[in-house]
Amino acid sequence: MASALAAKMGFNSLLRKPARSFSVRICTMESDMEFSCEVKWKGKDLFDLVCRTLGLRETWFFGLQYNIKDTVAWLKMEKKVLDQEVPKEEPITFYFIAKFYPENAEEELVQDITQHLFFLQVKKKILEEEIHCPPEASVLLASYAVHAELNVASYASFVNASLFLAPVQVINLYQMTAEMWEERITACYAEHRGRTRDEAEMEYLKIAQDLDMYGVNYFLIRNKKGTDLLLGVDALGLHIYEPDNRLTPKCSFPWNEIRNISYSDKEFTIKPLDKKTNVFKFNSSRLRVNKLILQLCIGNHDLFMRRRRVDSLEVQQMKAQAREERARKQVERQRLQREKQLREEAERARDELERRLIQLQDEAHMANEALLRSEQTADLLAEKAQIAEEEAKLLAQKAAEAETEMQRIKVTAIRGQEERRLMEQKMLEAEMLALKMAEESERRAKEAEQLKQDLQEARDSERRAKNKLLEITSRTVYTVNDLRPPGGMPQELSFSRENLSFDFKDTDMKRLSMEIEKEKVEYMEKSKHLQEQLNELKTEIESLKLKERETSLDIIHNQNTEQGTSKQSNFKKVTAAEQSLRSAHMFFNIELIDFCFMISH
């Protein structure tokens, strides 16, 4: 009997079904994930699994949201997942998004993943116009979004960024083409060079957190008189709005001035800390909405009080690790920046060496041509001197012949008085001719002597040119060796007479002069204060605005700007970072060689 009973129990155990599971799809701002969950899992089990997968430790800002009928709800941490009103179709879709917003993103957001998820969520809300953004802020936010998402050194990597990174309502509000928007975004983007993606995302959040609708959850309510109103819940407190004005609250209840919040069925009651202040009561449309309002009130109030207490050990540890990581990244960035700067300087030095090498080769080629012309001129002068000497000899021979003729005429003069007179006249003419020919011979001799002197001077100049050329060559080798890169091998330059030239016109050599100047480049001043940038952008595009396309939120925002009234926060700070760039300039001066030969013909 016992063995039969044991066999039956074993058979029943084989027939028993394994524990059931269900699948879920988690949609984050960046990607989707799917998990297989056990039936007994609570909301916290699923939430912790998602946070571990993302490497997220600042879990108190986020939650799992799901759609239910015509509204949304948040998954409760203490209840089983399947015991809540979640969709029945598998995989069950949850949205992992920020449920609560920080008062000051720069001080509260510690992890990079937390900052990145907030950046994506806030940007999505601005582009979908769930958060109203004025045009001047849209341009600046678009430039930071471009830098954060592309993280490139050049704006040329993206086209028509304004169509994707600025709200459609803002683009349609102005008579501006996509190129005009890109031009303004480019001007802002150029000021962000050198920033990392994390820094660009933080600057985006610092600007976005000052927008009036940032972090506010709106709910339609009615007061005791039945008037339709909007209830806004955010990190600072509760705000009451007109239905058509979500920017300027009629009244506000900061969390530190609220003593109690309660609801019964559909009626909510807000009791201020000051008992003299009237109690505010309102009704909402559905019980499910009341629960959602209460969840947001409790969570925002808890975070409000938590910020004003000393950080827990976990948060202190996270902040210390974040500071160490930022310091390490800063050191790494500085190292990379130095390497980049040294590489750029080496490339500039190499380019300068190549430029100077080409310049010296051109100069040597010109000097060589000048030397060849000098040699040709010297040969021509020698030839002319030889011709002059031959002409002088010929004139001397003619002078001797004239003298002989004169003697012959004197001998024959005795033949007669008439002949004598005629002969005397001829002798006089011969003497005059001899005198002229003697003068011409003397002039030719002087000219030949002068040509000899010119020839000697030309040869001396040629010798000095050769010496100067040798001096240029030796000084060029010395200059290139001095400019060789650190650790590099010395470079030698060789010049031949075929590579050298000077410029001559006719027989006169002109003075060779080459001057090299390099002007210093001044960089434009760095970015101005954030508010000045916004005012400038607003002034630039104000004339292109189409008034008839303004929405009610645009009109209210303009009125608030003129009156100076808006939601205030003691923790909202916008700091503008400046980065100065240094540039190194190298100046090189090269001595020029002057040759001057005066050649007489």
Automatic annotation (TrEMBL):
The keyword Plastid appears for this protein: no
GO molecular function: actin binding
Pfam families: ERM_C, ERM_helical, FERM_C, FERM_M, FERM_N
Any coiled-coil regions, as ranges: 310-412, 438-475, 513-554
Topological type in the membrane: Peripheral membrane protein
Subcellular localization: Cell membrane; Cell projection
Entry-linked InterPro entries: Band_41_domain, ERM, ERM_C_dom, ERM_FERM_C, ERM_helical, Ez/rad/moesin-like, FERM/acyl-CoA-bd_prot_sf, FERM_2
A single Gene Ontology CC term: plasma membrane
Signal peptide: none
CDD domains reported in the protein's UniProt record: FERM_B-lobe, FERM_C_ERM
Domain FERM: 22-308
Residues reported in the UniProt entry to bind a 1,2-diacyl-sn-glycero-3-phospho-(1D-myo-inositol): 76-79, 291
Keywords assigned by UniProt, alphabetized: Cell membrane, Cell projection, Coiled coil, Membrane
Superkingdom, taxonomy of origin: Eukaryota
Broad class of where this protein is predominantly found: membrane
The protein, known as: FERM domain-containing protein
Gene source species: Salarias fasciatus
This protein's encoding gene: nf2a
